Inverse folding.
């Protein structure tokens, strides 16, 4: 799924909260409006893979990790509970390391049990 696939009323989840998608607003921009507390994010700050990018750095806590379809726009504002499965989930990045890399990261040698 890409950023361009998002539609008004969809719910998106980041590590920081639940947001509702608001496209083509009267301000001329697209936003994610936080449901659980006050605040919003401008969709211009996201790349096409729905990762939050600022001029200075990647902000992974605001990456979109799940997307939910919303059949009732008003219900979207009133709850951050979900009645359905997500239509999209970000695959988890699981890092891969060699034994030498792990030894260096941990700062000590170890053995792997079978």
């Amino acid at each position: 799924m890409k950023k361009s696939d998002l539609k008004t009323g969809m719910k998106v989840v980041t590590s920081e909260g639940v947001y509702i998608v608001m496209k083509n607003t009267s301000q001329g921009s697209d936003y994610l409006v936080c449901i659980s507390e006050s605040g919003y994010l401008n969709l211009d700050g996201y790349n096409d893979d729905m990762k939050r990018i600022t001029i200075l750095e990647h902000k992974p806590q605001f990456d979109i990790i799940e997307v939910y379809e919303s059949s009732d726009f008003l219900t979207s504002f009133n709850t951050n509970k979900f009645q359905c499965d997500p239509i999209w989930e970000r695959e988890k990045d699981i890092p891969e390391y060699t034994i030498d890399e792990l030894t260096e990261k941990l700062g000590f040698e170890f053995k792997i049990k079978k």
Q: What stands out?
A: The chain has one domain: 3-106. The CA atoms of residues 80 and 114 lie 43 Å apart. The longest helix spans residues 99-106. The beta strands are 11-14, 17-22, 31-34, 40-42, 66-68, 88-89.
